[in-house]
Amino acid sequence: MMGAIVLSHRWLGIAFCLLFAMWFATGIVMHFVPFPSLTEAERFAGLAPVERGPLTTPVADAVAASGIIDATRVRLIERSDGPVYVVSGPSRLRAVRATDGQDASVSSAEVALVIAQAHARRRGLDATHAGIVAHADYDQWSVPNGFDRHRPLFRVALGDAAGTEVYVSSVTGEIVLDTTRSERGWNLVGSVLHWIYPTVLRSNWAMWDRVVWTLSLLALIAAILGAVLGVTRVRMQGRRISSPFRGWHALHHVIGLIATIFVLSWIVSGWLSMDHGRLFSRGQLTAAEAAVTNALPDWKAAAALDRRPISSSAREVEWFAFNGAVYRRERIGLDRQILIRPDDSEAAVFSAQEVESLVRRLAAGCNAPSFLAGNDDYPAQSIVPGAPVYRSRCGDLWFDIDSADGSVLQRLDASRRAYRWLYGALHTLDFPVLLAHPRWRDGVIVGLCALGLMFSITGVVIGWRRLRLSFAG
DSSP labels for 181-225? Predict the structure, then answer.
């Protein structure tokens, strides 16, 4: 039995020691430089004030023109080529011109360039030398599934000092992603390596999922076997623990004993990052729950809301259903909005009582919603910074509701709450006590990853020597 463990660990270790070293080194980079994305602050800063004239197509007509029969939300934005409705369904998006109801998708590179330049100027970015550099479904930075409904994308290089590139959706004409030269460079030696994220593999999500899940599982087995061997090979000399090995083997053994708990927890949690419903729930609404939260609105009822003029300072307007009625939401600042109720009254956000009436339709035995504190163990943030998030506990099932737009931010059952600790906390060390002291957390993460890297390097050396002996023989 022990012989089989030795051989298995030896050859799995040789196969995965470089992978371990890469994961620990790139983990340090990822902690400081996340994968490129367009933040909500950046997106909002790039929006122009909405100008809604008397010839604007009614919302109900825009939905009909979009052809999306299961549309749940409609947004009005001002593009450089005029006002546009963005109609959203569970799986589709469609842009419709607010002036005549015609298709507003972007097929022209010239139009995409003008949209990108206008967005950049509003954000204070230099777009004097901007130009289209690609029109494609995928590249290294646009592979995440969230962009699927926007493909193909126009990639526009602004030509500024930071090397900024922005991506324009061909479906809606919105800016959906930006990157800088620095972000791209650091992520090539960070996230791309860490997640095994080359475009050719990641563009096929199912294949990428299987490959990385399998590699992570084999790496976990190698680590477990190594931990077993490390503990069984410990020698006691009086009160002192010693290793029977010498040289690099001894260094590998000693560092392994010191780092065993961290290495195992990090590899286990890393493998769980690829769980995707295999062992734990995914936190998704059931069909019955989705039918309540994403009920099809009576779009004709939106006409009653539109008797009130849109605020001159609104940069985005949204219509959606909440508790069976249609509401209008106007974003007038990153952290400010106006919510127009069906009775023509207005508020900043939904009240706790309104949220409670929704939750009682989702599940039985729910407690009254409570305000979610910023340091909660299961954090969630509103789409509008500073807006309350309410949590309602329905027995073992928890719902977190965004008071800004009525959406369900989290569905937490016991499985999902366990996953938060077994993956999130163990892999990113986002324990509340460390989050309260960011510098301490930085130090702990860098220190532990450096320890894991040293351990992996000793494995690389041992593996290389073993291979040289094998080939020499």
Answer: HHHHHHHHTTHHHHTT--HHHHTSHHHHHHHHHHHHHHHHHHHHH
Helix (H) or strand (E) holding 153: strand 153-157
Q: For the chain, how long is the longest CA-to-CA vector?
A: 90
Give the separation between CA 57 and CA 74, rounded to whole angstroms: 13
Task: Work out the mean pLDDT of the chain and round it to a whole number.
Answer: 94
d(C-alpha 342, C-alpha 305), whole Å: 7
pLDDT tens digits, 266-307: 999 999 999 999 999 999 999 999 999 999 999 999 989 988
Block residue for tokens 């510098």? 439
Q: Residue 430 burial (CB < 10 Å; 0-12/13-18/19+)?
A: middle
User: CB-side exposure of 361: number of CA atoms within 13 Å?
Assistant: 16
Tokens of 342: 């069906």
**In the structure encoding, which two tokens stand for residue 160, read together?**
């500024």
Residues 328-368: tens digit of each pLDDT: 999 999 999 999 999 999 999 999 999 999 999 999 999 99
In contact, 292 and 358? CB cutoff 8 Å:
yes
Closest-CA residue to 296 (of 66, 73, 61) = 73
Q: For residue 96, list its beta bridge partners.
A: 85, 103
Tokens of 299: 């779009």
pLDDT tens-digit map of 139-172: 999 999 999 999 999 999 999 999 999 999 999 9
CA distance to 228, 259, 261, per residue, from 1 (Å): 12, 25, 24
Q: Which residue has the tokens 């007509």?
A: 61
Beta pairing class for 389-394 and 370-371: antiparallel
What three-state secondary structure class fits 72?
A: coil
Residue 134, CA atoms < 13 Å, CB-side half-sphere: 15
Structure tokens at 156: 């526009």
Q: How far apart are CA 65 and CA 251, in angstroms?
A: 69
Task: Report CA 272 to chain centroid distance, whole Å.
Answer: 16
Rounded Cα gap, residues 280 and 441, in angstroms: 27
Helix (H, G, I), strand (E, B) or coil at 259: helix
Reported as a single tens digit per residue, the pLDDT across 85-116 is 999 999 899 999 999 999 999 999 999 999 99
* Strands of the sheet with 389-394, listed across from one edge: 370-371, 389-394, 397-402, 408-412
Which tokens hold the place of 207? 């294949």
